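Weekly sync, protein design subgroup
Attendees: M.S., D.O., the rotation student, P.L. (late)

Item 1: inverse folding check
M.S. brought a backbone from last month's batch and wanted to see whether the design step gives back something sensible before we order anything. D.O. pointed out we never logged the input encoding, so this time it goes straight into the notes. Structure tokens as presented (361 positions):
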């Protein structure tokens, strides 16, 4: 049985890696074609576009691993069925669950590699890609994003902070700090034109105007600079450069903790992204399980081409269902854990159910 396990696992591994390389090359080509429309803007050359696409590849790697595992497993099993090897294995006493374990043994290290790529490689590479792209285009002062029409809000102790926008170099623009006393009465309002991180939790605000309320009397003052100590860190603002789904787990957790303090901001998208990051690598195993029932189709019911097409459609369905549940979870305030894991549980349950039905036949 060890020989059978190694044989099946080797075929599945080689097929998965080959499919993965093909998918990664295909998406890299599409990304490069998409970037060509911006070539010529500022200093954004074809070389810069190719570097951007290369830095974007780790994110693609993370996204494509489950689909590659599905198509690769389908392809390997189709070859075994086409050569009657699968029939010989079953006739020799190999159970469906033993063949499934041979496949999953390959999937476990692939799932670990998916997690490592999504946690330690893709996020810094994606940030570097966005920074390089903005610098090459001459968009260093470009506004990256705004969370609401009024800007970015968060609460720290008895202080509410509003940041109108964040530039590509993480410079804060339009900072408003509203300070309240223990009885939640407004005690001071500070407005700054810009702010830059100075290290050790300190921000240097420029063009500051302050209104302090003491015993019911408002005192107005101004200063060219003012040091603001805050729990806000540049890493928490990377959501403006990189989508939450591509951030590291600690950064997502910090965003959830900071933005959700006191219920000041809805954090549903960050929470769904957080749980997705934890459970997404398990999709590699689920997709391999989904591929196993296809081994029981006779060759006349569809050859390698049919299985690859079916795998592509299933992979696309998994991707779309995942996006659908994430969006519906944010819109309808569903529990983030449910929104993140439901597509995975649905596909895994279908795969296990089909395998159990086949085994009872």
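Designed sequence read out in the meeting:
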């Amino acid at each position: 049985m060890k020989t059978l396990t190694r044989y099946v696992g080797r075929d599945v591994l080689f097929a998965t890696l080959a499919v993965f390389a093909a998918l990664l090359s295909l998406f890299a080509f599409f990304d490069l074609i998409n970037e060509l429309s911006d070539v010529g803007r500022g200093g954004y050359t074809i070389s810069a576009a190719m570097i951007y696409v290369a830095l974007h590849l780790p994110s693609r790697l993370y996204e494509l691993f489950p689909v590659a595992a599905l198509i690769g497993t389908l392809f390997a099993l189709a070859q075994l069925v086409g050569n009657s090897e699968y029939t010989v294995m079953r006739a020799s006493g190999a159970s469906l669950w033993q063949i499934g374990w041979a496949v999953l043994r390959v999937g476990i290290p692939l799932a670990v590699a998916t997690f490592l790529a999504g946690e330690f490689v893709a996020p810094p590479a994606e940030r570097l890609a966005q920074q390089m792209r903005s610098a090459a285009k001459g968009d260093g002062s470009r506004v990256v994003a705004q969370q609401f029409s009024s800007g970015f809000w968060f609460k720290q102790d008895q202080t509410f902070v509003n940041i109108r926008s964040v530039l590509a170099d993480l410079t804060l623009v339009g900072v408003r700090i509203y300070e309240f006393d223990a009885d939640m009465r407004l005690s001071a309002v500070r407005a700054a034109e810009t702010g830059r991180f100075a290290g050790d939790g300190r921000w240097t605000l420029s063009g500051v105007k302050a209104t302090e309320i003491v015993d019911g009397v408002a005192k107005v003052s101004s200063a060219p600079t003012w040091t603001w100590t805050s729990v806000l860190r540049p890493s928490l603002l990377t959501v403006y450069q990189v989508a939450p789904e591509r951030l590291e787990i600690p950064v997502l957790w910090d965003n959830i903790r900071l933005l959700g303090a006191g219920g000041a901001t809805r954090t549903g998208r960050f929470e769904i992204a957080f749980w997705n990051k934890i459970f997404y690598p398990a999709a590699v195993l689920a997709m391999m399980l989904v591929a196993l029932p296809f081994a029981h189709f006779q060759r006349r019911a569809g050859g390698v081409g049919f299985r690859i097409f079916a795998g592509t459609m299933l992979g696309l369905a998994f991707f779309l269902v995942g996006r659908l549940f994430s969006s519906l979870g944010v819109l309808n305030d569903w529990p983030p854990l449910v929104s993140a894991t439901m597509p995975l549980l649905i596909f895994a349950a279908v795969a296990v159910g089909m395998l159990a039905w086949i085994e009872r036949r």
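Discussion: The first helix runs from residue 2 to 35. The chain has two domains: 2-138+270-360, 148-241.
Action: P.L. to compare against the previous round before Friday.
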